[in-house]
Amino acid sequence: MHSMPTQYSKPPRAHSIQACWQHLVNVLTSAGIDCAQQEAAIILQRVTGQSPTEFYTNLQRTVLPAETLQIEAILVRRLRHEPLQYILGSAQFYGREFYVDSTVLIPRPESELLIDVARDLLPALPGNGASQWFADIGTGSGSIAVTFACEFPQCRILALDNSRPALQVARRNVARHNVGDRVHLLQGDLLSAMGEEVSIIASNLPYVRTSDIANLSPEVSRFEPHQALDGGADGLEAIFRLCRQAPQVLQPGGWLLLEVGDDQAEVVSASLMREHVWESLSTFADLRSVPRVVAGRLAQQNSA
Model's pTM, two decimal places? Predict the structure, then answer.
């Protein structure tokens, strides 16, 4: 049995959801956990089996003893900074719920920009209808590939990852969202397993500098898989390899969409420009106004 962290105090028994919620907020806040109010609500909704609407309309309901025990078990793990998404086996992405565990990165809101950019490009892509293939490189949980399939039902998606455990997670999410007829999971290093030409290559590859990983929040540095974070000395090792390989499998006129780190967009754009096979190079900012996605269109006549 794990010992309780020193800052832990048990939630009040036979108290209302509202009182328990305030207690959880206080405990999480004192442990230095961000978004304590939101996380406390998520914990209580999960434990009590309520939707958000039900939760907010039943704040005076008494928390049952069995529910209190579940809350305590969750807190033991969360106060050690294990991400709540891993504890609950659930993460939100583009308005959908995805299964996650410690073999995959937790989907980030920043990555939703890849979906938005692809949507804007869709009318001008080479091919049409069911002939359009997208590739999600480094699919991890499959959140991007599955979202592509849900949002763009006319397209088919190749989802590639080098990690077999990650692909097992992605397979669960493909089945959960009933897109197994259009999402094809492949194991391999970057584009090595691909046999199709595609209209879009989208990727959220590792882009954290090796030396920076230890300085990330404990939720990330201690619990998320380092192989999905570590982009090498400059953070761009895998991204640059993908840039070199992409012209071999992109249809002329197809697009490469790269999620990059906070200070990497300019360097990646300049690298693509030097290759002389890319046109319409653009960057797109996330909700924090950080250039987050670099996009380039493969020229109709290229020398790759």
Answer: 0.91
pLDDT along the chain (304 residues), means of 10: 49 79 94 94 96 93 92 95 98 97 97 97 76 93 98 94 97 98 95 90 97 96 96 96 95 96 96 93 95 95 50
167 and 293 in a single domain? The answer is: yes
Residues 50 and 101 in one domain: no
Pair (126, 221) in one structural domain = yes
- Contacts with 209 (C-beta within 8 Å, 6 or more apart), sequence order: 231, 232, 233, 234, 235
User: Which of residues 42, 71, 100 is at a domain's end?
Assistant: 71
- Assess whether 114 and 50 both reside in one domain: no
158: its two tokens: 């190749």
Nearest to 104 by CA among 231, 208, 228, 261: 228
190 and 126 within one domain: yes
Contacts of residue 206, defined as CB under 8 A and 6 or more positions apart, other chains included, come to: 138, 227, 228, 229, 230, 231, 232, 235, 237, 238
Exposure class string for 258-275: b at 16+ Cβ within 10 A, else e:
bbbbeebbebbbebbeeb
Q: Return the pLDDT at 8.
A: 57
Backbone angles phi, psi at 231, to 5 degrees: -100, 15
